[in-house]
Amino acid sequence: MKKSNKGHRTFSTAFKKEKVELLDEGKISVKELSRIYEVSETAIYKWRKKYSKYGPTEHIVVEKISEEKKNAELLKRIAELERIIGRKQMEIDYYKTTLEVIGESAGEDFKKK
After folding, report:
1. Contact 29, 54 (CB under 8 A)
2. End-to-end alpha-carbon separation of the chain, Å?
3. Are both 33 and 74 inside the same structural domain?
4. Residues 70-84, buried b or exposed e (16+ Cβ, 10 A)?
5. How does pLDDT run across 62-94, given as a tens digit for each residue?
6. What is the total count of domains within the chain?
7. Is residue 7 part of a domain?
8. Would residue 2 count as lying in a domain?
9. Which domain holds residue 33?
10. 34 with 70, same domain?
């Protein structure tokens, strides 16, 4: 890797704030900014810490669905399906019993037919 002989460069506060604003808006990444202006990523993170509209402890968290919420939804769906299966099993038992009663009163075995 070839090192450039640029020496020590200084960027204005306005320049740094402008670039940090682009970072905050998600228009450019730290890596891209580092490559374009040939500045270390560490320096850019320092700019971000100093000039970002978000505080140093404030982070933007983007999540789809939290695992806890997803698990709760799945458990709810499982319970619903178990209720449906229970109802269907009760219907099957009812029809079996009905066939047995009709078969006994008619003297025939409807299960075999």
Report:
1. no
2. 86
3. no
4. eeeeeeeeeeeeeee
5. 666 677 888 889 999 999 999 999 999 999 999
6. 2
7. no
8. no
9. 13-51
10. no
